[in-house]
Amino acid sequence: MAAATYRGGMTSHATEPAPTVDKTDEQWRQQLNDEEFAVLRQAATERPFTGEYVDTETEGVYQCRACGAELFRSDTKFGSHCGWPSFYAPSESDAVILREDSTLGMTRVEVLCRACHSHLGHVFHGEGYATPTDDRYCINSVSLTLEPKA
């Protein structure tokens, strides 16, 4: 489905809410390792099937590695076999920002942390997964931390 018609609604840089966690690149570099910085702050993608949470089935809450904001819950995680952790919905509708991404010669929908605007991955709709939303939030493991259920 073309990003311009994505049913979840998207923002542009001009209409996005300001981040509540705002740091300089230098501050992010001090906090994040090289791979985390490349993915979270420069929109890189980790190699498929290499991330810490690809096959994790631990119950808990997935948070933004950069700022700690709650993003996803384990009860929305599913096995998509795509090489990255997949979720069918964020924990709250306003936990993420959806932005059109026209890089790499295709149109996709980028997913960012609403709190700090860090790149998380992309969302795809209508791929035929048996989920309540028919969405696949394809998220880089390196952009997440998992807080296991107590």
From TrEMBL:
<dbReference type="GO" id="GO:0030091">
    <property type="term" value="P:protein repair"/>
</dbReference>
<dbReference type="GO" id="GO:0033743">
    <property type="term" value="F:peptide-methionine (R)-S-oxide reductase activity"/>
</dbReference>
<dbReference type="InterPro" id="IPR028427">
    <property type="entry name" value="Met_Sox_Rdtase_MsrB"/>
</dbReference>
<dbReference type="GO" id="GO:0005737">
    <property type="term" value="C:cytoplasm"/>
</dbReference>
<keyword id="KW-0479">Metal-binding</keyword>
<feature type="region of interest" description="Disordered">
    <location>
        <begin position="1"/>
        <end position="25"/>
    </location>
</feature>
<keyword id="KW-0862">Zinc</keyword>
<dbReference type="GO" id="GO:0006979">
    <property type="term" value="P:response to oxidative stress"/>
</dbReference>
<dbReference type="InterPro" id="IPR011057">
    <property type="entry name" value="Mss4-like_sf"/>
</dbReference>
<dbReference type="GO" id="GO:0046872">
    <property type="term" value="F:metal ion binding"/>
</dbReference>
<feature type="domain" description="MsrB">
    <location>
        <begin position="25"/>
        <end position="149"/>
    </location>
</feature>
<protein>
    <recommendedName>
        <fullName>peptide-methionine (R)-S-oxide reductase</fullName>
        <ecNumber>1.8.4.12</ecNumber>
    </recommendedName>
</protein>
<keyword id="KW-0560">Oxidoreductase</keyword>
<dbReference type="InterPro" id="IPR002579">
    <property type="entry name" value="Met_Sox_Rdtase_MsrB_dom"/>
</dbReference>
<dbReference type="Pfam" id="PF01641">
    <property type="entry name" value="SelR"/>
</dbReference>
